[in-house]
Model the fold of this input.
Amino acid sequence: MRFEAGDRDLFFGRTRLTDDLVRLAHAHRVTAVFGPSGSGKSSLLRAGLIPCLREAEDAALRPAAIRILTPGTRPARDHTRLFTPAAPTGETWLVVDQFEETFTLCQDPAERRKFLDLLLSARAAGSRLRVVLGVRADFYARCLEHEGLAAVIREASLPVGPMTPSELREAIVKPAAAAAGLIVERSLTDRLIEEVGEEPGGLPLLSHALLETWRRRRGRTLTLQAYEAVGGIHGAIAQTAEAFYAGLTEPQAGTARRILLRLITPGDGTPDTRRPVDRTELDSTGPAGSRCPRCSTRWPAPGSSP
Ligand SMILES: Nc1ncnc2c1ncn2[C@@H]1O[C@H](COP(=O)(O)OP(=O)(O)O)[C@@H](O)[C@H]1O
Ligand SMILES: [Mg+2]
Done:
């Protein structure tokens, strides 16, 4: 679960990046934040950037309004009104999370161009809009197809890389202490830093492993022993998934298998990668044994191994 603007008291480990983003976004009317899925972009925008703007010491730098949106299927039609500044003075900030939806959910090139024009209108002289985009890094090339966006990327883009070991330590220890006065065993923190540090997009795994460790806490302490018992950074998510799957009825399990298999592109000598699927494709997932009309993969029978 991403952090929201109200979670700022639990949001740690991104001070440096938040400061960099605030500086960059103040210096440019349109800024783009790039990072892999799970790197913490949404959380950075919502629980890092937004509270920092609202609480700026210099009142002149505080936005007149901050609006957060995700593009969806018809971004120009649905969000045009958000591009009218909120107040006669001051700046209205638009934070566009999941900007890649402009290329995935929105399928209409004219609609897409209109939305991009709206966003880039913030760069016009006299504009009182400021735009910050959060974009999945694998859509970098799609953004470069558009001249205006390419200029934004050249002038004002910020990569969301992995946290440093000391940032990770903060992100592990401080929320536990702040939310519930919990203590994380030193040996557990060290292990997590070692394991997550080597894992691109490892934060969601960290989050889940800590949740499961918390369920097995001893008094106020999250222990290495509990972490190992729940299966560690990879095992914890696998155990939860297995337990969930085991609770499904046979038809439900068959449907789950068909959906999950459609969400992977098998690698050919390279690692398997995720495959985003739209609802219409899932709705048309056919009976076991039939072939997908798009990629001609055969849907497996419920209960058969992949
Ligand atoms: N600073 C942080 N500390 C701890 N966990 C984090 C932090 N930032 C993100 N996460 C966790 O990482 C996961 C992915 O975060 P999210 O903001 O949704 O990333 P993205 O938008 O890049 O996919 C979520 O489970 C979130 O709780
Ligand atoms: Mg996100």
Q: What stands out?
A: The CA atoms of residues 34 and 159 lie 5 Å apart.
